[in-house]
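Friendly challenge for the regulars: who can give me the C-alpha coordinates for this chain first? No prize, just bragging rights.
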Amino acid sequence: MVCKGTSLNVEVGFLYSFTGELYCGLRLGSRTLVASPVNMSCCDSVDGKRVLDDVKDYYGKRLKKSDDLRIPTACSTQQTAGVPLAVRAAIGEVHDEVVTRYYGCGLITPEHVDGCKVLDLGSGTGRDVYMLSKLVGEKGFVTGVDMTDEQLEIANKYVSYHTEKFGYTKPNVEFIKGYIEKLGEAGLKDNTYDIIVSNCVVNLSPDKKAVLTEAHRVLKTGGELYFSDMYADRDLPEDIRKHQVLWGECFAGALSWKEFAEISTKIGFSQPRIVSASLSPIEDPELKAVVGDYQFASVTYRLFKLPATKDESCEAVYNGGISGWEDTLKLDYNHTFKRSEAVGVDSELATILKHSRFAEKFQFEKISDALADEDNLVDPFQYISVHGQSPNACCAPADKPATNGSCCKPTEK
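First reply, four minutes later:
Bragging rights claimed.
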Protein backbone atom coordinates (compact mmCIF):
# COMPACT_ATOMS: atom_id res chain seq x y z
CA MET A 1 0.00 0.00 0.00
CA VAL A 2 1.30 3.44 -0.91
CA CYS A 3 -0.05 6.65 0.58
CA LYS A 4 0.84 10.26 -0.06
CA GLY A 5 0.79 13.12 2.41
CA THR A 6 -0.01 16.71 1.60
CA SER A 7 3.54 17.99 1.61
CA LEU A 8 5.47 14.88 2.56
CA ASN A 9 7.18 12.42 0.27
CA VAL A 10 6.15 9.10 1.75
CA GLU A 11 6.43 5.76 0.06
CA VAL A 12 4.87 3.34 2.51
CA GLY A 13 1.55 3.34 4.35
CA PHE A 14 0.95 2.53 8.00
CA LEU A 15 -2.28 2.15 9.95
CA TYR A 16 -2.68 3.22 13.56
CA SER A 17 -5.76 2.77 15.69
CA PHE A 18 -7.49 4.86 18.27
CA THR A 19 -10.58 3.50 20.01
CA GLY A 20 -11.81 1.53 17.03
CA GLU A 21 -10.63 3.74 14.18
CA LEU A 22 -7.56 3.31 12.02
CA TYR A 23 -5.50 5.90 10.23
CA CYS A 24 -2.93 5.63 7.51
CA GLY A 25 0.49 6.87 8.57
CA LEU A 26 4.14 5.91 8.61
CA ARG A 27 7.37 7.56 9.54
CA LEU A 28 10.11 6.42 7.20
CA GLY A 29 13.42 7.96 8.14
CA SER A 30 12.58 11.63 8.69
CA ARG A 31 9.37 11.55 6.65
CA THR A 32 5.90 11.12 8.08
CA LEU A 33 2.48 10.44 6.60
CA VAL A 34 -1.10 10.32 7.74
CA ALA A 35 -4.32 10.10 5.77
CA SER A 36 -8.00 9.98 6.67
CA PRO A 37 -9.43 7.54 9.21
CA VAL A 38 -10.46 4.10 8.02
CA ASN A 39 -13.65 2.78 9.61
CA MET A 40 -13.29 -0.70 11.10
CA SER A 41 -14.26 -2.74 14.11
CA CYS A 42 -10.88 -4.23 15.00
CA CYS A 43 -8.13 -6.33 13.54
CA ASP A 44 -10.50 -8.94 12.08
CA SER A 45 -11.47 -6.55 9.27
CA VAL A 46 -9.63 -6.22 5.98
CA ASP A 47 -8.14 -2.93 7.14
CA GLY A 48 -7.18 -4.44 10.47
CA LYS A 49 -5.20 -7.14 8.71
CA ARG A 50 -3.59 -4.48 6.54
CA VAL A 51 -2.29 -2.53 9.53
CA LEU A 52 -0.63 -5.65 10.90
CA ASP A 53 0.89 -6.43 7.50
CA ASP A 54 2.26 -2.89 7.26
CA VAL A 55 3.75 -3.11 10.75
CA LYS A 56 5.45 -6.37 9.80
CA ASP A 57 6.79 -4.84 6.60
CA TYR A 58 8.17 -1.78 8.38
CA TYR A 59 9.81 -3.54 11.31
CA GLY A 60 10.79 -6.62 9.35
CA LYS A 61 12.05 -5.31 6.03
CA ARG A 62 12.65 -1.56 6.15
CA LEU A 63 14.39 -1.11 9.49
CA LYS A 64 17.87 -2.62 9.62
CA LYS A 65 19.10 -1.35 12.98
CA SER A 66 17.70 0.49 15.99
CA ASP A 67 19.21 3.80 14.83
CA ASP A 68 16.82 3.72 11.83
CA LEU A 69 13.81 3.96 14.15
CA ARG A 70 12.95 7.54 15.01
CA ILE A 71 10.79 7.39 18.10
CA PRO A 72 10.49 9.91 20.92
CA THR A 73 13.12 9.27 23.58
CA ALA A 74 10.48 9.98 26.19
CA CYS A 75 8.81 6.69 25.35
CA SER A 76 11.11 5.07 27.86
CA THR A 77 9.94 5.42 31.45
CA GLN A 78 11.86 2.93 33.53
CA GLN A 79 13.78 4.76 36.26
CA THR A 80 17.55 4.61 36.04
CA ALA A 81 18.07 5.08 39.76
CA GLY A 82 18.42 1.82 41.65
CA VAL A 83 18.52 -0.53 38.66
CA PRO A 84 20.28 -3.60 40.09
CA LEU A 85 23.70 -4.61 38.87
CA ALA A 86 22.32 -8.02 37.87
CA VAL A 87 19.96 -6.38 35.39
CA ARG A 88 22.74 -4.32 33.85
CA ALA A 89 24.92 -7.39 33.63
CA ALA A 90 22.14 -9.41 31.96
CA ILE A 91 21.69 -6.76 29.27
CA GLY A 92 25.45 -6.75 28.72
CA GLU A 93 25.39 -10.47 27.92
CA VAL A 94 22.78 -10.21 25.16
CA HIS A 95 24.27 -10.68 21.67
CA ASP A 96 25.07 -7.45 19.83
CA GLU A 97 22.89 -8.23 16.80
CA VAL A 98 19.88 -8.85 19.01
CA VAL A 99 20.35 -5.48 20.71
CA THR A 100 21.15 -3.56 17.52
CA ARG A 101 18.05 -4.87 15.71
CA TYR A 102 15.77 -4.43 18.73
CA TYR A 103 13.31 -1.53 18.38
CA GLY A 104 11.93 -1.20 21.89
CA CYS A 105 12.79 2.07 23.59
CA GLY A 106 12.98 1.31 27.29
CA LEU A 107 13.98 -1.28 29.85
CA ILE A 108 11.21 -3.26 31.54
CA THR A 109 12.52 -4.97 34.67
CA PRO A 110 9.94 -6.21 37.18
CA GLU A 111 11.34 -7.39 40.49
CA HIS A 112 11.59 -10.95 41.83
CA VAL A 113 11.39 -12.90 38.58
CA ASP A 114 13.54 -15.87 39.64
CA GLY A 115 11.84 -19.10 38.56
CA CYS A 116 8.89 -17.28 36.94
CA LYS A 117 7.12 -17.94 33.65
CA VAL A 118 7.23 -14.67 31.71
CA LEU A 119 5.57 -13.57 28.47
CA ASP A 120 6.88 -10.69 26.34
CA LEU A 121 4.28 -9.12 24.05
CA GLY A 122 5.88 -7.88 20.83
CA SER A 123 9.27 -9.36 21.67
CA GLY A 124 11.02 -8.37 18.42
CA THR A 125 14.56 -9.75 18.19
CA GLY A 126 14.35 -10.86 21.81
CA ARG A 127 16.48 -8.41 23.76
CA ASP A 128 14.14 -8.35 26.76
CA VAL A 129 13.44 -12.08 26.43
CA TYR A 130 17.14 -12.90 26.71
CA MET A 131 17.67 -10.42 29.51
CA LEU A 132 14.81 -12.02 31.42
CA SER A 133 16.11 -15.48 30.49
CA LYS A 134 19.19 -14.69 32.55
CA LEU A 135 17.19 -13.20 35.41
CA VAL A 136 14.56 -15.96 35.76
CA GLY A 137 17.27 -18.60 35.87
CA GLU A 138 17.26 -22.09 34.44
CA LYS A 139 14.11 -23.01 36.37
CA GLY A 140 12.19 -20.10 34.86
CA PHE A 141 10.91 -19.75 31.30
CA VAL A 142 10.37 -16.80 28.96
CA THR A 143 8.11 -16.74 25.89
CA GLY A 144 8.28 -14.04 23.25
CA VAL A 145 5.38 -13.41 20.87
CA ASP A 146 5.91 -11.40 17.71
CA MET A 147 4.31 -11.33 14.26
CA THR A 148 7.37 -10.33 12.22
CA ASP A 149 9.31 -13.13 10.52
CA GLU A 150 12.54 -11.16 10.17
CA GLN A 151 12.58 -10.25 13.85
CA LEU A 152 11.79 -13.81 14.90
CA GLU A 153 14.55 -15.14 12.65
CA ILE A 154 17.14 -13.10 14.54
CA ALA A 155 15.65 -14.04 17.92
CA ASN A 156 15.72 -17.76 17.16
CA LYS A 157 19.22 -17.51 15.70
CA TYR A 158 20.70 -16.88 19.14
CA VAL A 159 18.80 -19.33 21.36
CA SER A 160 21.75 -21.73 21.55
CA TYR A 161 24.19 -18.85 21.96
CA HIS A 162 22.46 -17.53 25.09
CA THR A 163 21.80 -20.99 26.50
CA GLU A 164 25.55 -21.62 26.44
CA LYS A 165 26.37 -18.06 27.54
CA PHE A 166 24.21 -18.40 30.64
CA GLY A 167 25.50 -21.90 31.44
CA TYR A 168 22.10 -23.61 31.07
CA THR A 169 21.73 -27.28 30.13
CA LYS A 170 18.72 -26.50 27.93
CA PRO A 171 17.01 -23.37 26.56
CA ASN A 172 14.58 -21.56 28.82
CA VAL A 173 13.13 -19.37 26.05
CA GLU A 174 10.85 -19.80 23.07
CA PHE A 175 9.70 -17.45 20.34
CA ILE A 176 6.22 -17.82 18.86
CA LYS A 177 4.83 -16.16 15.76
CA GLY A 178 1.47 -14.64 16.58
CA TYR A 179 -0.62 -11.57 17.24
CA ILE A 180 -0.79 -10.06 20.70
CA GLU A 181 -4.53 -9.45 20.18
CA LYS A 182 -5.04 -13.21 19.57
CA LEU A 183 -2.80 -15.12 21.94
CA GLY A 184 -5.15 -18.10 21.85
CA GLU A 185 -4.45 -18.60 18.16
CA ALA A 186 -0.74 -18.67 19.06
CA GLY A 187 -1.44 -21.56 21.44
CA LEU A 188 -1.20 -19.66 24.72
CA LYS A 189 -3.48 -21.17 27.35
CA ASP A 190 -5.42 -19.66 30.24
CA ASN A 191 -3.73 -19.00 33.58
CA THR A 192 -0.21 -19.76 32.39
CA TYR A 193 2.10 -16.84 33.15
CA ASP A 194 3.35 -15.20 36.32
CA ILE A 195 4.38 -11.98 34.56
CA ILE A 196 3.70 -10.30 31.22
CA VAL A 197 5.95 -7.50 30.00
CA SER A 198 5.65 -5.19 26.99
CA ASN A 199 7.96 -2.44 25.82
CA CYS A 200 6.08 0.36 24.02
CA VAL A 201 4.18 -2.09 21.79
CA VAL A 202 0.53 -1.96 22.89
CA ASN A 203 0.21 1.53 21.37
CA LEU A 204 0.76 0.01 17.90
CA SER A 205 -2.04 -2.52 18.20
CA PRO A 206 -5.25 -2.09 16.20
CA ASP A 207 -7.23 -3.36 19.20
CA LYS A 208 -5.80 -2.38 22.58
CA LYS A 209 -8.77 -3.75 24.51
CA ALA A 210 -8.19 -7.17 22.94
CA VAL A 211 -4.52 -7.05 23.96
CA LEU A 212 -5.41 -6.32 27.59
CA THR A 213 -8.18 -8.94 27.60
CA GLU A 214 -5.85 -11.61 26.28
CA ALA A 215 -3.16 -10.62 28.77
CA HIS A 216 -5.65 -11.01 31.61
CA ARG A 217 -6.71 -14.43 30.30
CA VAL A 218 -3.24 -15.97 30.10
CA LEU A 219 -2.04 -14.58 33.45
CA LYS A 220 -2.30 -16.72 36.55
CA THR A 221 -4.33 -15.34 39.42
CA GLY A 222 -1.90 -13.01 41.17
CA GLY A 223 0.01 -12.51 37.94
CA GLU A 224 1.18 -9.12 36.72
CA LEU A 225 1.21 -7.09 33.52
CA TYR A 226 4.20 -4.73 33.73
CA PHE A 227 4.49 -2.46 30.69
CA SER A 228 5.21 0.98 29.29
CA ASP A 229 3.31 3.08 26.73
CA MET A 230 2.32 6.62 25.72
CA TYR A 231 -0.82 8.35 27.11
CA ALA A 232 -2.68 11.63 26.63
CA ASP A 233 -4.07 13.75 29.44
CA ARG A 234 -7.59 13.51 27.93
CA ASP A 235 -9.39 12.31 24.81
CA LEU A 236 -7.87 13.88 21.73
CA PRO A 237 -9.97 15.92 19.27
CA GLU A 238 -10.21 15.05 15.60
CA ASP A 239 -7.77 17.72 14.41
CA ILE A 240 -5.00 16.19 16.52
CA ARG A 241 -5.96 12.61 15.77
CA LYS A 242 -5.82 13.27 12.03
CA HIS A 243 -2.66 15.36 12.01
CA GLN A 244 -0.01 14.01 9.66
CA VAL A 245 3.16 14.49 11.64
CA LEU A 246 1.63 13.81 15.06
CA TRP A 247 0.59 10.35 13.91
CA GLY A 248 4.11 9.56 12.81
CA GLU A 249 5.45 10.80 16.15
CA CYS A 250 3.21 8.34 18.10
CA PHE A 251 1.22 11.10 19.82
CA ALA A 252 -2.07 11.17 17.92
CA GLY A 253 -2.77 7.49 18.56
CA ALA A 254 -2.32 7.61 22.33
CA LEU A 255 -5.14 6.56 24.59
CA SER A 256 -6.05 8.91 27.37
CA TRP A 257 -4.87 7.63 30.75
CA LYS A 258 -8.48 7.68 31.96
CA GLU A 259 -9.72 5.48 29.13
CA PHE A 260 -6.87 3.06 29.71
CA ALA A 261 -7.75 2.84 33.42
CA GLU A 262 -11.43 2.26 32.64
CA ILE A 263 -10.68 -0.47 30.09
CA SER A 264 -8.19 -2.31 32.28
CA THR A 265 -10.34 -2.33 35.42
CA LYS A 266 -13.44 -3.33 33.45
CA ILE A 267 -11.53 -6.32 32.10
CA GLY A 268 -10.76 -7.35 35.68
CA PHE A 269 -7.30 -5.98 36.48
CA SER A 270 -6.47 -4.15 39.67
CA GLN A 271 -6.24 -0.40 39.53
CA PRO A 272 -3.20 0.62 37.48
CA ARG A 273 -0.20 1.42 39.65
CA ILE A 274 2.30 3.98 38.41
CA VAL A 275 5.91 2.86 38.53
CA SER A 276 7.33 5.83 36.66
CA ALA A 277 6.15 8.62 34.38
CA SER A 278 7.64 11.48 32.41
CA LEU A 279 6.21 14.14 30.14
CA SER A 280 6.74 13.83 26.39
CA PRO A 281 6.81 17.47 25.30
CA ILE A 282 6.36 18.62 21.73
CA GLU A 283 8.93 21.33 21.00
CA ASP A 284 8.25 22.08 17.33
CA PRO A 285 6.38 25.46 17.19
CA GLU A 286 4.04 24.37 14.40
CA LEU A 287 3.08 21.15 16.17
CA LYS A 288 2.72 22.91 19.51
CA ALA A 289 0.19 25.21 17.88
CA VAL A 290 -1.85 22.16 16.79
CA VAL A 291 -1.66 20.40 20.14
CA GLY A 292 -2.43 23.47 22.22
CA ASP A 293 -2.69 22.57 25.89
CA TYR A 294 -3.00 18.79 25.38
CA GLN A 295 -0.22 16.90 27.10
CA PHE A 296 1.40 13.50 26.63
CA ALA A 297 3.33 11.27 28.99
CA SER A 298 5.22 8.01 28.77
CA VAL A 299 4.25 5.79 31.69
CA THR A 300 5.18 2.43 33.15
CA TYR A 301 2.16 0.86 34.85
CA ARG A 302 1.74 -2.41 36.66
CA LEU A 303 -1.59 -4.27 36.67
CA PHE A 304 -2.40 -7.39 38.69
CA LYS A 305 -4.93 -10.14 38.06
CA LEU A 306 -6.58 -10.64 41.43
CA PRO A 307 -9.02 -13.21 42.84
CA ALA A 308 -12.69 -12.28 42.89
CA THR A 309 -12.70 -11.82 46.67
CA LYS A 310 -10.22 -9.39 48.16
CA ASP A 311 -8.31 -9.97 51.38
CA GLU A 312 -8.72 -7.74 54.40
CA SER A 313 -6.36 -4.87 55.06
CA CYS A 314 -3.41 -5.79 57.25
CA GLU A 315 0.18 -5.04 58.14
CA ALA A 316 2.80 -6.30 55.72
CA VAL A 317 6.44 -6.84 56.67
CA TYR A 318 9.02 -7.22 53.92
CA ASN A 319 11.49 -9.97 54.78
CA GLY A 320 14.04 -8.88 52.19
CA GLY A 321 15.86 -11.33 50.01
CA ILE A 322 14.81 -10.18 46.54
CA SER A 323 17.96 -9.90 44.45
CA GLY A 324 18.71 -6.26 43.76
CA TRP A 325 16.13 -5.09 46.27
CA GLU A 326 17.46 -6.82 49.38
CA ASP A 327 16.73 -3.99 51.81
CA THR A 328 14.07 -1.89 50.09
CA LEU A 329 11.31 -2.88 47.67
CA LYS A 330 9.50 -0.11 45.81
CA LEU A 331 6.25 -1.54 44.47
CA ASP A 332 4.93 1.70 42.98
CA TYR A 333 5.31 5.44 43.36
CA ASN A 334 3.54 5.43 46.74
CA HIS A 335 4.58 2.15 48.35
CA THR A 336 8.12 1.40 49.45
CA PHE A 337 8.74 -1.47 51.84
CA LYS A 338 11.85 -1.51 54.02
CA ARG A 339 13.05 -4.82 55.36
CA SER A 340 11.59 -5.80 58.74
CA GLU A 341 9.40 -2.67 58.87
CA ALA A 342 5.62 -3.13 59.29
CA VAL A 343 3.49 -1.17 56.83
CA GLY A 344 -0.29 -0.93 56.88
CA VAL A 345 -1.82 -1.88 53.51
CA ASP A 346 -5.38 -1.56 52.29
CA SER A 347 -7.51 -4.41 50.96
CA GLU A 348 -6.34 -4.29 47.33
CA LEU A 349 -2.65 -4.02 48.13
CA ALA A 350 -2.97 -6.79 50.71
CA THR A 351 -4.56 -8.97 48.02
CA ILE A 352 -1.77 -8.15 45.56
CA LEU A 353 0.97 -9.03 48.04
CA LYS A 354 -0.70 -12.22 49.31
CA HIS A 355 -1.57 -13.70 45.91
CA SER A 356 1.36 -12.59 43.74
CA ARG A 357 4.95 -13.84 43.51
CA PHE A 358 5.79 -11.38 46.30
CA ALA A 359 3.87 -13.38 48.92
CA GLU A 360 6.85 -15.54 49.91
CA LYS A 361 8.88 -12.43 50.73
CA PHE A 362 6.36 -10.94 53.18
CA GLN A 363 4.84 -11.69 56.55
CA PHE A 364 1.30 -10.51 57.24
CA GLU A 365 -0.27 -9.49 60.55
CA LYS A 366 -3.93 -8.84 61.27
CA ILE A 367 -4.96 -5.40 62.47
CA SER A 368 -7.83 -4.55 64.77
CA ASP A 369 -9.24 -1.69 62.71
CA ALA A 370 -9.61 -2.09 58.97
CA LEU A 371 -7.86 0.46 56.79
CA ALA A 372 -9.86 2.42 54.28
CA ASP A 373 -9.04 1.84 50.61
CA GLU A 374 -6.37 4.22 49.44
CA ASP A 375 -7.00 6.84 46.81
CA ASN A 376 -4.54 5.34 44.34
CA LEU A 377 -3.14 7.96 41.97
CA VAL A 378 -3.63 6.69 38.40
CA ASP A 379 -3.33 10.00 36.54
CA PRO A 380 0.32 10.29 35.43
CA PHE A 381 0.01 14.04 34.88
CA GLN A 382 -1.11 14.61 38.45
CA TYR A 383 1.69 12.31 39.57
CA ILE A 384 4.24 14.40 37.67
CA SER A 385 2.85 17.66 39.05
CA VAL A 386 3.21 16.36 42.61
CA HIS A 387 6.28 14.13 42.46
CA GLY A 388 8.17 15.39 39.43
CA GLN A 389 9.24 13.43 36.38
CA SER A 390 10.85 10.01 36.57
CA PRO A 391 14.28 9.73 34.94
CA ASN A 392 14.32 8.11 31.49
CA ALA A 393 16.31 4.97 30.82
CA CYS A 394 16.69 4.60 27.08
CA CYS A 395 19.18 1.91 26.26
CA ALA A 396 21.93 2.67 23.80
CA PRO A 397 22.65 0.18 21.00
CA ALA A 398 25.36 -2.32 21.78
CA ASP A 399 27.85 -0.59 19.48
CA LYS A 400 27.46 2.82 21.14
CA PRO A 401 28.31 3.96 24.66
CA ALA A 402 25.36 4.64 26.93
CA THR A 403 24.96 8.22 28.05
CA ASN A 404 23.10 10.28 30.64
CA GLY A 405 23.17 7.56 33.25
CA SER A 406 21.58 4.92 31.06
CA CYS A 407 20.75 1.75 32.95
CA CYS A 408 22.28 -0.18 30.09
CA LYS A 409 25.79 1.13 30.57
CA PRO A 410 27.99 -1.97 30.38
CA THR A 411 29.29 -3.20 33.70
CA GLU A 412 32.96 -3.68 34.30
CA LYS A 413 34.12 -7.25 34.09
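The two ends are 49 Å apart (CA to CA). The chain is about 25% helix and 25% strand. Your move, everyone else.
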